[in-house]
Amino acid sequence: MRLLSLPLLLAMMMALGGCNYKGVPDPQVSSRDAEWMAQIPTAEEDPRFGRYLIDDPTGEAPGTIVVDTKERQLYLVQPNRKAIQYGVAVGDEAYGWTGTSTIARKAEWPDWNPPAEMKARWPHVQYTKGGPSNPLGARALYLYEGNKDTLYRIHGTNEPEKIGFAVSSGCIRMRNIDVIDLYNRVPVNTKVIVR
Length: 195
Fold this sequence. Notes:
By secondary structure, this protein is an alpha+beta fold. The chain has four helices and eleven strands, in the order αβαβββββαββββαβ. The protein has a single domain, classed as L,D-transpeptidase catalytic domain-like, CATH 2.40.440.10. The chain is globular, with a radius of gyration of 18 Å. The chain starts with 5 loop residues before the first helix and ends with a strand. Belongs to the YkuD family.
C-alpha cells in the first residue's frame, strides 16, 4: 500500500474540513449597486475569505459582529450557535484598532473625507464623493464608543485584491457584495467587537 505524502494529506484534510462550510447566497443589489460595482476591478477570491455559514467560533450573543484581526475574518453571530463568516482586510499593525463599539450610522455609497491624521501622513488623500472610485466602497458602518466616533468603519473597498491582508489605516474592509450583505442584516446599535 502506497503512503500519501504529507503535503497531499494536509491538502486533502483542508478540503474535507471545508465541507463544514455552507455558502451564503449573494444579496440582491440595486441597479446602481450593480453598475458601480462593475466599474471596480475584480480580484480572484481566495476561498478562505468567502462568505460562509459556519459553527460560531466566537461565543458571543446572536446579532453581535466579531472581527478577528489575526484570522482576517468578520463573524456575524446567528442563532443556534452559527455565524456568517466574511473575509476582511484589517488595519496595518501600526494603525490597528481593537475594542468594543456599536454601529451608530449606516450609509450607502458614502462620501469619504479622510481624517486629519491620515491627511498628515498622506497629503495626496482627499475628499472623494461616493461611487466606484471611493475607498469606502458600497456601504459603510460607522463605529462609535458611546457618543464618540472612533473614526473607524466597516466598509466596502475599491481594492478587493487586498482582502485577507493587514493594509488599512484601522478600518475593516470587505468585498462590496459582502458589505452589502452585512449592511442588510444588521441594524444601527449592533454591537461590534474587534479582537
